[in-house]
Amino acid sequence: MKIVQLEAKAIHTRRGFEHFWKVMQEFNRQGQSFSVDDILAKSDQDQVRNIRDLVSRLLKSGHLAEVSADSPKRFMIARNEPFVPRVRRDGTIAPVKQDHIWAAIRMQRQWFTVQDIFIFTQHSDAPPTEQSIASYVTRLKLSGYLSVQADPRKVKPTRYFLKPSMNTGPRAPRVIRSEGIYDPNKQQVMGLLSARELQS
Fold first, then answer.
1. 101 in the same domain as 31
2. How far is 141 from 4, CA to CA, in rounded Å?
3. Digit-coded pLDDT (tens) for 31-62
4. Is 196 a member of any domain?
5. In whole angstroms, what is the distance from residue 102 CA to residue 116 CA?
6. 3-state SS of the chain?
7. Residue 98 domain-assigned?
8. Which CATH number does the domain housing residue 26 bear?
9. In this structure, are 22 and 59 located in the same domain?
């Protein structure tokens, strides 16, 4: 078996839904309302469209309430949750399949295969497909989370092991529209390209 070690560069970021939600929570703790511009002031300056997208989703889902219709409109959190709500654009709650995959990976105490994780997650409320597990595992591998044990003859399935140093916490690292992963536990992009989080 060939063991492959992959390294990834971490990038601190002030973008992504997780970051925007944390900014909203900061205002909430201070008893203050906030506008899109207030969130933008604490974020990367090219993120206004993504901030508006999240605010729109959270208004439809009932997590935010509009408290002033004057320009600029101001909002407050109506339903607070520890982590950013996974909400589709129509306001419905999205399944959290990556959370189930990440939790299953963290529970492994030995080398595992994609099939092992598939079997482990089938009793969850949103069971992922084997293909989606393989895709997520590949992203984790490329972002430096996993050690890899590959069969050079390609007879046996590739095996993986979560590096202890990359067991960063319970919140699932999220695939972004690049070759990287956003880790909400570390608030870092584990990759080199732009951080546009995948949202359904």
1. no
2. 10
3. 999 999 999 999 999 999 999 999 999 999 99
4. no
5. 13
6. CEEECCCCCEEECCCCHHHHHHHHHHHHHCCCCECHHHHHHCCCCCCHHHHHHHHHHHHHHCCEEEEECCCCCEEEECCCCCCCCCECCCCCECCCHHHHHHHHHHHCCCCECHHHHHHHHCCCCCCCCHHHHHHHHHHHHHCCCEEEEECCCCCCCCEEEECHHHCCCCCCCEEECCCCEEECCCCEEECCCCCCECCC
7. yes
8. 1.10.10
9. yes
Indicate the angle between helix axes 48-61 and 17-29, nearest 10 degrees.
70
**What contacts 82, CB < 8 A, 6 or more positions away?**
none
Domain count, the chain: 2
Q: Does residue 98 share a domain with residue 116? A: yes
Tell me if 186 sits within 8 A of 170, measured CB to CB: no
Which residues are within 8 A (CB) of 194 and not within 5 positions of it... i.e. 6 or more apart?
A: 176, 177, 178
> pLDDT for 154-166, tens place per residue?
778 999 999 999 9
Q: Examine residue 118 and state whether it is found in any structural domain, yes or no.
A: yes
* Domain housing 33: 17-77
The Cα–Cα gap between 13 and 194 comes to 10
Residue 195 included in any domain: no
How far is 9 from 191, CA to CA, in rounded Å? 5
CATH code for the domain in which residue 100 is found: 1.10.10.10
Do 25 and 111 fall into the same domain?
Answer: no
Q: Please state whether the predicted TM-score (pTM) of the whole model is above 0.85.
A: no
